[in-house]
Amino acid sequence: MVSYMIPQEADKLKKIPLSNDTVSRRISDMVKDVQNQLKMQIKESTFFSIQCDESTDIANCAQFLCFIRYDCGHSIKENVLFCKSLPDHATGESLFKVFIEATEPFGIDWKKCVSICSDGARAFSGKNSGLIARLKTLMPNANWVHCFLHRQALAEAIKVVNYVKSRPLQSKLLENLCEEVGALHKHLLFHTEVRWLSRGNVLSRLFSLRSEMLLFLMDSKHELSHFFSDEKWLIKLAYLADILSHLNILNSSLQGPETTILYAQDRINAFVRKLTL
């Protein structure tokens, strides 16, 4: 292509080394350059805030992510500070250790940190041994902000899901029952304490399998079975499944780089106005 479009430049391109080692070195150089730029920008900023989160990648490996938002000139910038792998059972102590090791090369003045945002997982928010409690010893001026996207739950429905999903045999028995009665779905979706986006999907699936769950829990002689024959409770479940599916859409729209509280407030206010129509 280059030979036809700009033949005079083709020879120059042929001289560019493309061996694996050369490409690897160039990538390392670019990474160092980006890190140095970020280091200088953070150093020159007046204040900054961080957001910590623990997530799972496509290989089902736990990853610890930290984002930083800081002032740079006349604008606000947002960057990934680090992304590190975690052990299977992450604790506040292990998170803190990873945090210190990952941020040490940046030489950050933590007194400039004014806010720490995280979800409500125990490893993060534990009063004495959680990550936030440990970080506050480094960041005396920082306030902890609970991510407002993690605050919806429904106790009885989640107990039902956890009862089924916590035991492989129960999940298999429910699957067999759903196959026998020709149900559209065969599995309940799993709920976790801080995976906020799962809640609307969990309730929608639970409501669609309400008849099958009644049979299953009655066969198991479980105390929660009476809920699925309670018309008032089912109406509440249907309502919450519907409203939380809309909240999922809203919550998804609040995600993304450089999202500010002003933008989030506008989207939430628009959502509330739609509810009153």
Give an account of the 3D structure.
There is one protein chain. By secondary structure, the chain is an alpha/beta fold. The protein folds into three domains: 1-44; 46-147, Ribonuclease H-like superfamily/Ribonuclease H (Nucleotidyltransferase, domain 5, 2-Layer Sandwich), CATH 3.30.420.10; 155-275, no CATH class. Helix content is 52%, strand content 15%. It contains twelve helices and five strands. The chain has helices spanning 2-5, 7-14, 20-44, 92-103, 122-125, 131-138, 155-165, 168-181, 198-208, 210-219, 231-253, 261-275; strands at 48-56, 62-72, 75-85, 113-118, 143-146. The protein has a five-stranded mixed β-sheet, covered by helices on one side. A hairpin with a 2-residue loop joins strand 2 and strand 3 (75-85). Helix 8 crosses helix 10 and helix 9 runs antiparallel to helix 11 (231-253). Residues 150-154 and 189-197 have low confidence and may be disordered. It comes from Homalodisca liturata. This is DUF4371 domain-containing protein.
Number of strands: 5
Evaluate the radius of gyration. Answer: 25 Å
Kindly give the count of domains: 3
Cα shape: extended
Enumerate how many helices there are, as a single number. 12
Q: Low-confidence segments, ≥5 residues, pLDDT <50? A: 150-154, 189-197
Structural class: alpha/beta
Query: What pattern of helices and strands is seen along the backbone?
Result: HHHEEEHEHHEHHHHHH
Biggest sheet character: 5 strands, mixed
Q: How much of the polypeptide forms β-strand, as a percent range?
A: 5-15%
End-to-end Cα distance, whole Å, is 58 Å
Question: In order across it, which strands form the biggest sheet?
Answer: 3-2-1-4-5
Helical fraction: 40-55%
* Chain-averaged pLDDT: 76
Protein name: DUF4371 domain-containing protein
